[in-house]
User: Which sequence fits this backbone?
């Protein structure tokens, strides 16, 4: 009785104030002293989620009896998880992960196609000879995924862009919590936007600045890129695609430009890559996971650096057009099977599945300095005078005994706040520390900057960034025994640029914190 009163009071504290739509369940404490009536919104096998006249409440099922047509079966409970959003994630990656999760746990997953945009996995336990879970997937786009979540038609959103301010506001108003909180989202895998042309097109490289102008339509002739005197035909995904929205967001944020209105739109990544491959005057931004027969174009700059959309460059986010693939989770309990699935997506076996599906996984890798020849060549190229060479020698001396983690940290433009991918990386590194994966080792957080302004100021800023990332990891790794791992700070300012400083994109890539281990 007392426990039930406490549960109700706690639930009332977090109530969202939404009126009940129907009265289909009644929850009664086992001594009959308290009774709640409302609409059952969900049951995870342990807790009821009910819309009542007090708002939306979550009640421990062990302390109540349920009566009414909406009451679930306690003996044959079937966990349900509704997933909606990006077709890029939903068509290939999510099915591969669900099937791998079932196989690893001795379960059987049967795929049932409902219609062209919906499919379901029924997960059965062969020993119990019954279905124990259903994964309903709505394959659409990022916009529709967030709309489904807000309409309570989804439990998880698959997104190829960050949640927008207006979506954050509506989610809070709907009682879904702060979806901008690091615990409410995670990066499942990485994709990237790769400029592509036809194999017959002579263009092999394009600068970030010129690419932005092509996308905006202010540069529309191949002659301006060293090609023939012919119009540039731009191919993009449809407006609802998270990848296309990500392009628009970056253009408007970084260059104050908007996407040209006369581009040819495609409803899938495969269709875009195929069309560009056949169009001698076409250029497009394709998904790294699906380039087809189109020819990738290298990103270049006035300083002579070149950036290729390789797996290694995407994983470290050294490639400036990296596109994180997000899962957004509302602030409510999911069934145990769903929670186990989400935990599986972060496991080493799941990272193998992600790689086989054609995307870039999240498993940290260690990279020796000797294998980073392009980065060192860039560092040598920009070193100026005796001071520059001295900084370069110190950097090589410090980093040579160590190996770089593929986990990097970058910041939102004009802000000291980590970007979404980096906030996820903080969580990932903190979990590794809690698991003791770096016990007995030294982690050095190394800050770098762009080349704008005096070198001394850049070095100071880079050091402050390294401190802020280290402190964020320490705060997040609450259960870690940090006495077992050394965590140091160093900074080299502008000594090892990844891209030219002539664009906002390039400067953003250069402003970073890396983690080196020994």
Assistant:
């Amino acid at each position: 009785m007392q426990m039930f009163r406490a549960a109700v009071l706690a639930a009332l504290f977090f109530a969202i104030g939404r009126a009940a739509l129907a009265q289909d369940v009644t929850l009664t404490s086992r001594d009959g002293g308290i009774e709640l009536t409302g609409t059952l919104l969900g049951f995870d096998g342990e807790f009821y989620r009910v819309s009542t006249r007090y708002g939306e409440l979550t009640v421990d099922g062990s302390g109540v009896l349920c009566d009414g047509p909406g009451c679930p079966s306690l003996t044959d409970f079937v966990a349900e998880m509704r997933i909606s959003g990006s077709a890029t994630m939903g068509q290939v990656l999510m099915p591969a992960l669900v099937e791998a999760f079932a196989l690893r746990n001795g379960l059987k997953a049967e795929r049932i196609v409902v219609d062209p945009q919906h499919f379901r996995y029924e997960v059965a336990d062969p020993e119990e000879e019954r279905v124990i879970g259903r994964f309903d997937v709505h394959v659409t786009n990022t916009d529709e995924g967030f709309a489904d979540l807000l309409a309570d038609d989804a439990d998880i959103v698959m997104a190829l862009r960050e949640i927008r301010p207006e979506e954050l506001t509506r989610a809070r108003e709907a009682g879904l919590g702060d979806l901008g909180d690091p615990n409410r989202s995670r990066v499942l895998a990485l994709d990237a936007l790769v400029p592509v042309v036809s194999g017959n097109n002579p263009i092999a490289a394009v600068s970030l600045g010129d690419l932005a102008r092509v996308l905006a339509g202010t540069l529309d002739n191949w002659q301006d890129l060293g090609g023939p005197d012919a119009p540039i035909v731009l191919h993009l995904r449809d407006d609802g695609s998270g990848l296309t929205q990500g392009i628009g967001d970056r253009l408007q944020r970084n260059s104050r430009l908007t996407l040209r209105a006369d581009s040819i739109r495609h409803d899938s990544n495969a269709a875009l890559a195929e069309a560009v491959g056949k169009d001698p005057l076409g250029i497009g931004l394709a998904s790294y996971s699906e380039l087809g027969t189109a020819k990738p174009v290298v990103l270049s700059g006035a300083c002579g650096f070149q950036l290729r959309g390789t797996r290694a460059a995407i994983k470290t986010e050294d490639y400036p057009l990296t596109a994180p693939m997000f899962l957004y989770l509302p602030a409510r309990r999911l069934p145990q099977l769903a929670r186990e699935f989400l935990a599986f997506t972060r496991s080493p076996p799941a990272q193998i599945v992600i790689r086989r599906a054609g995307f870039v996984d999240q498993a940290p890798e260690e990279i020796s300095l000797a294998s980073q020849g392009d980065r060192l060549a860039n560092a040598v190229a920009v070193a100026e005078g005796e001071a520059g060479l001295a900084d370069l020698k110190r950097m090589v001396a410090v980093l040579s005994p160590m190996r770089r983690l593929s986990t990097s940290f970058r910041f939102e433009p004009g802000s000291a706040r980590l970007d979404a991918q980096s906030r996820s990386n903080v969580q990932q590194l903190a979990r590794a520390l809690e698991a003791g994966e770096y016990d007995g080792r030294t982690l050095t957080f190394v800050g770098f900057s762009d080349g704008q302004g005096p070198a001394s100021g850049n070095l100071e800023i880079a050091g402050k960034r390294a401190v802020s990332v280290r402190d964020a990891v320490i705060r997040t790794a609450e259960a870690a025994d940090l006495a077992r791992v050394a965590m140091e700070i160093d900074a080299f300012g502008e000594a090892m640029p990844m891209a030219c400083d002539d664009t906002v994109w390039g400067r953003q890539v250069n402003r970073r914190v890396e983690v080196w281990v020994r």
